[in-house]
Design goal:
The protein has about 270 residues and is α/β, with parallel strands linked by helices. It is built from nine helices and eight strands.
């Protein structure tokens, strides 16, 4: 396995926003060596959560290791958070997909099997690319084509989705700091789903106290109405931010939700 840090260089001014700190967004890349010429692997780009205030390490490398064990090339995106505003983090994720697709041959990746996954606010980020890759402004701001930034699937884990009644207000306050009210609708993902949204795997817990399960239910309904394939799992018990639910990331492991990662791996393999 090779490991490397890849700095991302994004011109945010093309989207009309200015960088206010010296944070350098980057990908941690976990690349499996391939002894067989021509073998193509699937790739997963992981967006940790943190309410757009920080990025959670427990939703980064531990997740990458699971996908690596499944034979996928794995990347963790450490994206811009407060004081960054929309669409800075989204531009970074779109650039990540473009960069991985551009290097697909070098890294033995199938360019048509690049999946984005995210947790909580990172789920909102992954979902945002899923519903906005074909909206024009992203490709234009990155000087690329929509096909280059399109994810082939998304895995959303207890995601922030709606800016409505069941919103996690803190995430939207951090993401939209200083922007006008109209952006609440733009970033309420259930309102942006269309037929171009890629197939989606989504899971949540019924008792999530921070990001209500209605976020996932609203997104599922929007996917259904637009004819987008979806696999969903609602687990009965569990607090917010469980990651893998295992002892290495949780003080008290949650065995009920632990199957989600194997279910997600099977889903990706079946795409």
């Amino acid at each position: 396995m090779k490991f490397g840090k890849i700095n991302l260089h994004v011109d945010y001014t093309r989207a009309g926003v200015e960088k206010e700190d010296d944070f350098q967004p980057h990908l941690d890349a976990y690349i499996l060596d391939d002894p067989y010429t021509g073998y193509k692997r699937k790739a997963v780009i992981i967006c940790p959560g943190g309410g757009y205030e920080f990025t959670s390490e427990r939703e980064g490398e531990p997740i990458a290791m699971k996908y690596l064990q499944a034979g996928f090339q794995a990347f963790v995106l450490w994206y811009s958070v407060r004081p960054a505003v929309f669409p800075m983090a989204l531009m970074e994720l779109a650039e990540s997909v473009r960069f991985v697709r551009e290097h697909a041959e070098e890294w033995n990746i199938d360019p048509d099997q690049i999946v984005v996954t995210g947790f909580s606010a990172g789920g909102h980020l992954a979902g945002s690319l899923s519903v906005m890759w074909n909206k024009g402004f992203l490709a234009d701001s990155l000087d690329t084509t929509e096909d280059m930034i399109k994810p082939n699937g998304s895995i959303l884990c207890y995601p922030v989705i709606t800016s409505g009644e069941k919103a996690h207000r803190g995430s939207f306050e951090a993401l939209l700091r200083g922007l006008s009210e109209e952006y609440l609708d733009v970033t309420s993902l259930e309102k942006q789903v269309d037929a171009g949204t890629p197939p989606t795997f989504i899971w949540h817990t019924w008792t999530d106290e921070l990001v209500p399960v209605e976020n996932t239910l609203l997104y599922m309904d929007a996917l259904r109405k637009n004819g987008v394939s979806c696999e969903a799992h609602i687990f009965a018990e569990g607090h917010h931010g469980l990651s893998l639910g295992t002892g290495d990331v949780e003080t008290v492991p949650n065995t009920d939700i632990q199957p989600w990662i194997d279910l997600a791996i099977t889903w990706v393999n079946n795409l």
